């Protein structure tokens, strides 16, 4: 099992500098954000850029776990303009992954359609927009992995099951993030067992919960939980990683740094050190 990082917090660093820095702190894989505005925009990169990236990765002994375009892959519950942009960026990311010999593209499953719940949105609205992307990914030999961000259509395990009823394709799976499940009191350990064949990639993000505040303002309010670095919250990382191993997962644990108590580089350094102590 390897430890990686999602490059979003350092997406403004020049790509050569970012890769060299990542290697220096023990990062083994990079989950590369390829959305517009970052350091490797899938809609603008050239063949020379791709060759240069491959050379940099080889030089620093790092590989790509995935290319991702989370915000511009959502196709339900968004404006027509956003949907059109998603189709452009997501298609470019799929094609780029194939050129980079990277097997996975990260996405989000969209927001619920107004007036519909998540399962109904997945069944009735998602296929029209996502099926062409699924077919394109299969054509290019790459997999699509959906992160289970709670605000999207993948809020809980029932939503996961619905997604895979609608998309039974073997190349459609999850970027499994336990933090989005834990604060909702959903069993993220049992979820690993249930969806073991669909877990293509794993995000490492922890969650802090204050039950005293929650008891005062209720679970529908905000401010009683927040995301923190791995090891700084209540995710049981040893049990989680052991369960992943036992179901046969041997991929990446990719740090998604969203802890505002730490700067981007400092947070990654601490997270990588902690996770490598559990995986090496």
How is this structure best described in words?
43% of the residues lie in helices and 17% in strands. With 280 residues, the chain is an alpha/beta fold. The protein has a single domain, classed as TIM Barrel, CATH 3.20.20.150. The strands form two sheets. Strands 1-2-3-4-5-6-7-10 form an eight-stranded parallel β-barrel. Strand 1, helix 1 (15-24) and strand 2 form a beta-alpha-beta unit. Helix 3 runs parallel beside helix 5 (126-140) and helix 8 runs parallel beside helix 10. The longest helix is centred in the N-terminal third of the chain and has 20 residues, at 80-99. The mean pLDDT is 97.
Task: Outline the fold blueprint.
Blueprint: E1 2-6, H1 15-24, E2 29-33, H2 47-59, E3 63-68, H3 80-99, E4 104-107, H4 118-124, H5 126-140, E5 143-147, H6 157-166, E6 172-176, H7 178-182, H8 188-194, E7 199-204, E8 206-209, H9 211-217, E9 225-228, H10 237-246, E10 252-255, H11 264-279
Parallel strand pairs: 1-2, 1-10, 2-3, 3-4, 4-5, 5-6, 6-7, 7-10
Antiparallel strand pairs: 8-9
What does the main sheet amount to? Answer: 8 strands, parallel, barrel
CATH class: Alpha Beta
**SSE pattern:** EHEHEHEHHEHEHHEEHEHEH
Order the strands across the largest sheet as they lie in space: 1-2-3-4-5-6-7-10
**What overall geometry do the principal axes of the alpha carbons give?**
globular
Going by helix content, strand content and strand pairing, the class is alpha/beta
Q: What gap, in angstroms, lies between the N and C termini?
A: 8 Å
Number of domains: 1
Number of strands: 10
CATH topology: TIM Barrel
The number of helical elements comes to: 11
Beta percentage is: 15-25%
Helix content: 40-55%
- The parts where pLDDT drops under 50 for at least 5 residues are none
Summarize model confidence as the mean pLDDT: 97
Q: How big is the Rg?
A: 18 Å
Query: What is the annotated CATH architecture?
Result: Alpha-Beta Barrel
| CATH homologous group name | Divalent-metal-dependent TIM barrel enzymes
């Amino acid at each position: 099992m390897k430890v990686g990082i999602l490059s979003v917090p350092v997406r403004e660093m020049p790509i050569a500098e970012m890769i060299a820095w990542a290697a220096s702190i023990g990062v083994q894989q990079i989950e590369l954000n390829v959305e517009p505005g970052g350091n490797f925009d899938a809609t603008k990169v050239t063949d020379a850029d791709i060759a240069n990236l491959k050379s940099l990765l080889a030089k620093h002994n790092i590989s790509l776990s995935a290319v991702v375009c989370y915000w511009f892959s959502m196709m339900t519950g968004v404006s027509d303009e956003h949907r059109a942009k998603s189709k452009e960026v997501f298609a470019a990311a799929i094609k780029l992954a194939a050129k980079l010999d990277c097997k996975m593209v990260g996405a989000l499953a969209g927001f619920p359609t107004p007036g519909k719940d998540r399962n109904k949105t997945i069944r009735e609205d998602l296929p029209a927009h996502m099926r062409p992307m699924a077919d394109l990914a299969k054509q290019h030999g790459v997999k699509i992995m959906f992160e289970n961000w709670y605000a999207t259509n993948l809020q809980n395990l029932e939503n996961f099951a619905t997604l895979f009823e609608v998309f039974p394709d073997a190349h459609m799976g999850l970027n499994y993030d336990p933090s989005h499940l834990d604060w909702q009191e959903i069993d993220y350990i049992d979820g690993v067992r249930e969806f073991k064949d669909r877990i293509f990639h794993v995000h490492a993000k922890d969650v802090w919960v204050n039950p005293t505040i929650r008891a005062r303002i209720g679970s529908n309010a905000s401010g009683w939980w927040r995301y923190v670095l791995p090891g700084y919250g209540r995710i049981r990382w040893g049990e989680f990683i052991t369960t992943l191993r036992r179901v046969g997962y041997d991929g990446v644990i990719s740090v998604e740094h969203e802890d505002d108590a730490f700067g981007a580089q400092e947070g990654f350094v601490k997270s990588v050190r902690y996770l490598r102590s559990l995986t090496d």
